[in-house]
Amino acid sequence: MLKLLKSVSFIHIVILLAGSSVFAQEKAPFWNDVQTIKAYDQQYAPPKDPILFIGSSSIRKWVDFYKSFGAYRVLNRGIGGAVTNDVDRYLNDIVFPYHPKQLVIYVGENDLISSPDAETVLNDFKKLYTDIRVKLPVVPIVYLTIKGSPSRAKYQEKAKKANLLIAQFIKAQKNIVYLDVYQPMLDKNNNMQPSLFTQDMLHMNATGYQIWNKLLIPYLLKD
């Protein structure tokens, strides 16, 4: 009987260790994306001291990105699908190594789905901002507000409240601009405009990005 108990205990230990091993091997979200970016940087040297764009797919899929900002030294390191905490997790990989002279940030929209309330969206942004300021205490930042996407209409009240809370937070900070892209993308009746989006009604088309370009360019630093 004692031998049987020892045998059962050993099996349980093996199962627990195997489970721990599998857990340890699990990669954080977007780990592969970040490794791809880092490998690309090894082959093609990124620009020195760029204006660095970070955030989710609205950054990554920026239509005609390098053409739109041809007069500036820019670098796009958006990660499609990322929430604010994902960007925060990889600051040491896709932000600090580039020594950016300016940051353009778009985060928060994907958080609307997973975050229980606007306050959580705010708190996640505050953590990201605080972590950035540890190593980049005075680098100018442009924060692009959460946009209104037709496919996520049910989250718009949360989006508007999150934008308001983040605006209040940014007002008390230095060297950061709160750039509203939500209102300029609405029509004269304050409705979202599907014509600014691709077929998925989430990502913008060239017309949508033209609005962003016009709003953003006056704030970008020239060499």
Task: Please tell me about this protein's structure.
- Mean pLDDT is 92; it is low at 2-11, 13-18 and 20-24.
- This protein has one domain (14-219): SGNH hydrolase (Rossmann fold).
- Helix 8 (118-135) runs parallel beside helix 9 (156-171).
- It is α/β, with parallel strands linked by helices.
- It has helices spanning 2-25, 31-43, 57-60, 65-68, 84-89, 91-94, 111-114, 118-135, 156-171, 206-216; strands at 51-55, 74-78, 102-106, 141-144, 176-179.
- The N and C termini lie far apart (79 Å).
Structural domain count: 1
Count helical runs.
Answer: 10
Listing every helix as H and every strand as E from the N terminus to the C terminus, the arrangement reads HHEHHEHHEHHEHEH
Strand content: 5-15%
CATH-wise, what's the superfamily?
Answer: SGNH hydrolase
Named CATH topology? Rossmann fold
Major beta-sheet overview: 5 strands, parallel
Write down how many β-strands occur, each being a DSSP E stretch of 2 or more residues. Answer: 5
Q: What overall geometry do the principal axes of the alpha carbons give? A: globular
Please report the first level of CATH classification, the CATH class: Alpha Beta
Helix residue percentage: 40-55%
How far do the termini sit from each other?
Answer: 79 Å
Output mean pLDDT.
92
Which regions have little confidence, pLDDT < 50, spanning 5+ residues? 2-11, 13-18, 20-24
